[in-house]
Amino acid sequence: MNPNIPSIDQLKEIALPAPVSYAPQTWGWWALLSVLVLAVLLVSARRYWQWRRDRYRREALVRLAELQSSDDQLRALRELPELLKRVALSMPTTYPVAALGGEDWQTFLVRHSPQPLPADFSQQLAQLAYAPNSTLLTLKEEQRERLFNTSKRWVEQHHVAV
Length: 162
Prior knowledge:
The chain is mainly alpha-helical and about 160 residues long. The chain has 7 helices and no strands.
């Protein structure tokens, strides 16, 4: 065997450098990490609180969609004013909503709506609640759709000052 040819027995392990920690080495990075974690926790808690607070709104929108696609249009039209009043009662405010009617109800609806409502919206809702069945059955399809769309827009976008 030729002594100039290296053999596998002559190989030696390479010395590896000492492992380096991925953890930050200075306190400033730890402080920044804790501020970021705290900010994420606060934002998450706020979003969860808002999601819980708007539960009544989500449930009302589901019910409104059921009413709008219902085959019994008379029952759906009768329930629409009641649904809006229940939404107003569920809002986290201290304002006494239950006794509102007429102009006071219209003022409440307009005050909490970011978009303009029809000037006679509360009168239309009162008509849906108290008019005879024959009157409601003569409503045109476009007027029904307008009532449902206005109600849906109000439920989706009404402002709640908390």
